[in-house]
Amino acid sequence: MAPEVSFTSFKNIVNGGFRDAKEHTYGHNPATGEQLWDVPVATKQDVDDAVQAARTAFKSWRKTTLAERKKTVGAVLDVYKRHFREFGDLLLKENGKPTVFADGEAKIIIDQFEFYLDLKLDDEVIELKDRTCIKRWVPVGVVAAILPWNFPLANVGGKMIPALLAGNAIIIKPSPFTPYSALKFVEIAQQVLPPGLVQVLAGDDRLGPWLTHHPDVGKIAFTGSVASGKKVMEAASKTLKRVILELGGNDASIVCPDIDVDEVAPKLVRGAFFNSGQVCATVKRVYVHQDIYDKFLAAAVKAVNAVKWGDPLGADVFLGPTQNSMQFTKVKDIYDDVKDKGYKVAVGGNIAPGNGLYAEPSLIDNPPNDARIVTEEQFAPMLPIQVWSDEEEVIERANDSKMGLGGNVWSKDETRARRIAESLEAGSVFINGVEMLTNHAPYGGIKESGIGLEGGPDAIKGYCDVQVLHTNIR
After folding, report:
1. Is 361 within a domain?
2. Domain count, the chain
3. Single pTM value for the model
4. Each residue of 172-203: pLDDT tens digit?
5. Which of 194, 211, 260, 344 lies 20 to 30 A from 381 at CA?
6. Same domain membership, residue 197 and residue 295
7. Alpha-carbon span 249 to 280, nearest angstrom
8. CB 443, CB 223: distance < 8 Å
9. pLDDT value at position 1?
10. Do residues 418 and 398 both lie within one domain?
11. DSSP labels for 374-387?
12. Are residues 273 and 289 in the same domain?
C-alpha cells in the first residue's frame, strides 16, 4: 500500500529523508495574495550533505545499465500518475495558472517521461587501420538543476529525467516563488528511488551560489534570466563545470502581407498572452507588413477583447495573474513607461486593482524601435505591434537584440517564409505557427539566450561527457 502523501506539508529532501530548518519561507497565491505553506530554508550544511549523498548514490547508479535505469525512472512515473490531480491543483495555487493550463503542465511531465524513456544511448564505433575507437557517453556526476518560477514542475522533468538516464545524481533547487510542486515531486519519488539519487533543496538567495560554487557539483542545468545565467556561468568557470543555460528571449514575429489576417492575428495574441506572457520562448514583438497593418491591428484588438482573464478558477479563463510581486513590479514599470512616453495603446494598458497581481492584456500600436516595450523582454501580457515594408530592414530589426531564443514567420509563400526564417538569429524559428516547444526536438538559445540544448533525441547526451576508448590492433 502506497504511503499517504500530504499536499499541505513541505520539506527538503536530503539522502532520502525529510530535512527541516530553523528558518522558513513561503510562497503566495498570486490570484488572491493568500500566503501559502511554510518551506524550510536550506543551510550550507544541507547543501554539503546533499552533495555528499549524491556522490555516494552516483557511485552505484553510474554502474547500472540504461535498461536498469529506465526501469527505476519509469517507476517514478507510476508513482506520479497516482497524484496527477493533486499536482494540477498545486500548480494552480502556487503559480496562478488557469485550471486548464495547470493541468496541462502536470501532464507535460508525463509526456517527458514517456519520450525520454524511449531514447537510446549507444556507443559509436570508429574503425581505423591501426585501432578501433569507441566513443562512449559517460555521466558527469552530480547535477544541480536550478529552476524558474514560470514552469516549476515541467522543468523538474525536463532536467531530472535525462540526467538520471545518463547515470547522474541530481539536486533540484526550485524558485523560492514556486517551491511546492518540486518539493512534493521529489518527496513522492523517494518511494522508488535509492537515497541521495534525487534530492531537493528550497531556500533563499544564498542557495544558488552555494550549489554553483560547490567543487563536487559537475554540471549546472539552469533556466532563468540572462542576468542570473551570467552569474551561473561565472561560478561554473571556477571549476569548469559543465552548464546548460536556458535563458530569456525577446522573440520577433514577422507577418507578411499574404496571410489570412483573421486567422493569424488571434494565434499571435494567444501565443503572446499564454501563461500571462511569462514564457521565455513566445511572441514578444510583432512586425506586420504595411499593406495589412490596420486590418491586422483591428483583428488583434478583437482577439484581445475575446480573451477571458482573471481568477484562474473561473470557467474558460485564459490569462491569469503575474506569478509574483517582484515580477509584477517590473510589469507595472513597463506599463507606466508606455503611458509616460505617450505610446498609442490600442487596447488595455492598465493594472487591475485588488489583491491579485493582474495586468490587462494590452496591445501597443507601432511604438518606436527603441521603446522599452520593444527592446526588453516584457514577461507580461503586453504586446508591441510595429509596421514594416522592406524585408531586409525588418529582418535587421528583428535581429537587433542581444537575445536569440525563438521567433516565427508568417506567409503563404513557403520560399519567402523559409528565407526569412533562416535569416533570424534565434535557436528555434517557427513558420506559420507560434512558438510551441516539443520534447521531440532540441531547443536552446543563441547569443545571450543561452548555451547548450535541452530536449530532443540527444537529451540524455547533454548530461554526459565523452570518453573515447582506443584499442590497438595487433
Report:
1. yes
2. 2
3. 0.96
4. 999 999 999 999 999 999 999 999 999 999 99
5. 260
6. no
7. 5
8. no
9. 61
10. yes
11. HHS---SSEEEEEE
12. yes
